[in-house]
## 1
Amino acid sequence: MAHELKRTAVLLLLSMLLCLSGCGGTPFSSEDWIAADQAGRQEMARSLMKEYDLVGWTEADVLRLLGPETSADPNFTYSLFGYDTEDTLVYALGAVNYARVRMLVITLDADRIVTKAELIDHDM
């Protein structure tokens, strides 16, 4: 009986540690996001996506939450990745590895309402 209780306690502890290890990243905060660099935003991105369902939001609401869309180079065009800059907000989140970049891509309809928000990795 005591052996089984120990075993159960160990399994419970291991399960909790496994759950906590899967909860990595930095919690999202609008103020921190707006002030963060790309790497900081990448750390918050999953938390943002879990916490907020942006579908149905207006473009103005998204911009209040996240600030203006970003780019490392003001001359950079997201059309290189197949995004129409007229109906898409793109937040660059930096490199995932040496050959891939991550972006938060928010698609808007003609009324400037969010129809899709997703984290996408692109080959460079």
## 2
Amino acid sequence: MTQKALGEALELKGDCQARIAQYEMGFRTPKRDVLEKMAQVLDVCIYALDTEPEGFFTQLIELLFWADTEDPHLMSLSTAHPDGEPYNSIQAFKIEYSDNDNWLLHDPTMLWFQNTFMDDYLKEWEVRKRELREKTITLEEYTEWKLQWPYSCNGCGKYKTQKQWRVLRKDTSNKENR
């Protein structure tokens, strides 16, 4: 969609193409109602456009999504599982990875959150990245999932998404978006 077409769809007064360009360059900031209408016209979640997202974790996930868009191989996600060892008063963690090709220059540093929301978001993101890697979803579907986030989330199959992001195929057995 061109800047002019977007400006016209938003019913902006004056030079609507220049106004959209100013929004894109950060010279002007659209008011909330314009931002909501823009998200509707572009069919994306408002969080993908909002410069002041609701809450720290939303902002952090959006930042990680854009880093992933710029360099898809920059980050890897993995779920840690308990090793069965008894937990003692010393906080210790052991995280291992398979280094079958010696592809890392050094041991990676792991980061995790003690926050249910962030953990749930990252788990679902891990699933989507794995689906992309295994080619069960396309790059376009993966991008759409990120653009519609958090409305595209389904709790890793626990509930129905609020926003359709998968391309429905006749031969699919996927039950996530039904």
## 3
Amino acid sequence: SSAIPTLAAADADALLSPIALAVATASPKLLDPALDALFRLLSRNILFFHLQTINASSDNKDKNNNDNSDGNSNSLASQLVDSLCKCCSIKDETIVLFAMKVLLAAVRSPIVVFRGDCLNHIVKTCYNVYLGRLSPATQICAKAVLAQMMLIVFARVEE
């Protein structure tokens, strides 16, 4: 199945690949519109994927335990999540806050499912932002994002 349910898998990958490349560059000029596009896709429940394991490098075999039979869509989704998490180590506070906003939108989305190592990676990223940033405003935002993520995860576990 496709990362965008209304499109064929190849078309969805063609649309998401430029966004994934822009996020992977870690260039603030490219990140801002890419993060905005991802946020809009996630908050409007347009993206769909189920990830359990992050494939941090392209050398790894597809280790995703997922419901989708299309490995490419999940590989792209895995790259997106990994790149988003790496964005949180950029010095630009605005980009870090935006990346955390996108991660929260992804966790909040009812049609995007994170489990296992993938969810752990996202939570660790927010926790590291909370611990590692000098800006009190960024720390407060990271703490709030982390709290919201935990509430969402535990609410889903109880369902």
## 4
Amino acid sequence: MYGVSVEEGGGAGHEARRCVLSKDRFPETTGGDKTTILFDLENQPGALVKVLSLFSSRGLNATMLQSRPSRLDPGAGLWEYTFIAEYLGHIRDQGLAEAYAEVEAGLGTLCKRIRLLGSYPRSSMGEND
């Protein structure tokens, strides 16, 4: 896989995830890609639903959503979170690009920060991996 040889197998039923690094931030689309986005919400009712609906209204499938304590503003307290979302598709795909641009345009209204972490080929381990 990716020109890397397997030195030792993990045995039956064991799977391992590998990270593929690239100098190109957004490699060419493969037709089977994922995109990971990080964002910090403004503290207002429904902000998370509003952001996620910008993606779902374009038929984009979220395969992962995680929250982590935010370190964006150290004085914000314990209840501010950074969200990491993973979507099927490439940032160069029209729907994903439009949704990202709309969230980005809402900086200061919906989000304090949005950052595109990258687009990359999906794993071949499973349908949603």
